[in-house]
Amino acid sequence: MAGVMRPACTALLVALALAALAGSRAQRTTTYAPDVTDDVGGWRRGRATFFGGEERFLANFPDRGPPPEYGFGNIRYGSCGYYEQNGRQDVTYGNQVYPRNAMAALANNDPDYPGSCGRCYEIRCRSLPVIANGTTPYRLSGTYQLAAVAPNAADEHGRYYPGNPLYGQDAQLTRCWNATDGGEDSIIVHITDMCPCVQYEDTEHPSRVTGVNTPCCGDVYHFDLSYWAFERLAHPLYGIMMVDFRPLDCATHEPLTYLPGFVNQTLYGDRVESGWSFEPYRQHYSSFWSPWSGVDGHNATCQATGPDGGLTLACRECDRDGYRPFAQAGSHGALEFWTAPTPDMPQGIPALTVTLGNKGARQYCSSFNTSAIAPVNRRGNYFKFSLPLAAFQCPSGYGLERLDQVTFASNARGNVSYCLSMIALVANPADGSSLER
């Protein structure tokens, strides 16, 4: 636009609201009616805020927090671990695995939050009055209003704030960009992070609450988009907008069933697949994907660790009804994977320990060492293993329906470098068992 319309007050709900929720938290049993009757492909109504952003824009709000984030958070360290985790390098926008304008966090109060890492959603902005919880209008009073602080702040495309026609009513109507403004009808985002209702100091001290993300606690479906994704749909000075959304297949963009949310039985294909987080630990280097380095020319994830390092792939909260990927593979199913040493290591089977478990409860099953079992296949320098799920001895009360993670840990005495390819939970193993050879 050529100029700036009368400034109006908006709010950014991404920030921590250090206040009581006053009963606004919703249980995951809340129903979200689709706008169409077909559960596959139906658009649903929700809401979105943003986090992160260009420092040039964020610096307009110095009272929110110190630079360079100014209290808006950042997108670089998402809870799904979707970035190249090289212990010798800082995490930058350049080593994110997905474009920064296609990244989002999902509220952990959303009904399809379980297994949401890596899932894709199509989102479109709606020029509607913003609602808080239920059908209650979102009120501007008592909120931090970006447009009131910096009404002339342009976005990254030089566009100015279009104004809020409901400002005089203490409400907000977000005006979506249209084609004339360079806007997009819809965008597709990857879930790379979570928007927690309640934030804790750390996982070791879950009772130490450090803040509350109010918009992620309500009964309205909520996304926290990256700043760059948000501005594709509306001006960031709005801070919050109503949206329509639907889950999509990340590869084909075909619409998917809403509930339960899609979780891939393949944990790692050409990348970490939908439903699974990427959690290397005590690594010297870890690649999210190494192009064409896997079996049969697929991508691989390659790790360089010491004797106490490894990689966990976890499906968060997937022990809930409707998810349970290990139980879907069944009692006759298996965990299958291919592994190979990196070219700089001695050739042969990498010395790995494979363990299943429940991430949230910190319960772990028995493990198997690749050095003590037999591969069921070999292609080039890659060895395939097939481990029957029933062979893992798990703690009482933690059968297949409670499992949600796989860990590959080094059992070498020194440093080890290896690659993993085509990791999957299969119902009908084709090559037999690594325990029967």
TrEMBL record:
Residues 77-250 form the Expansin-like EG45 domain. One of its GO terms (biological process) is plant-type cell wall organization. Transmembrane segments: none annotated. Keywords: Signal. Pfam families: DPBB_1 (PF03330). Residues 1-26 form the signal peptide. It comes from the Eukaryota. The keyword Glycoprotein does not apply. InterPro entries: Expansin (IPR002963), Expansin/allergen_DPBB_dom (IPR007112), RlpA-like_DPBB (IPR009009), RlpA-like_sf (IPR036908). This is Expansin-like EG45 domain-containing protein.
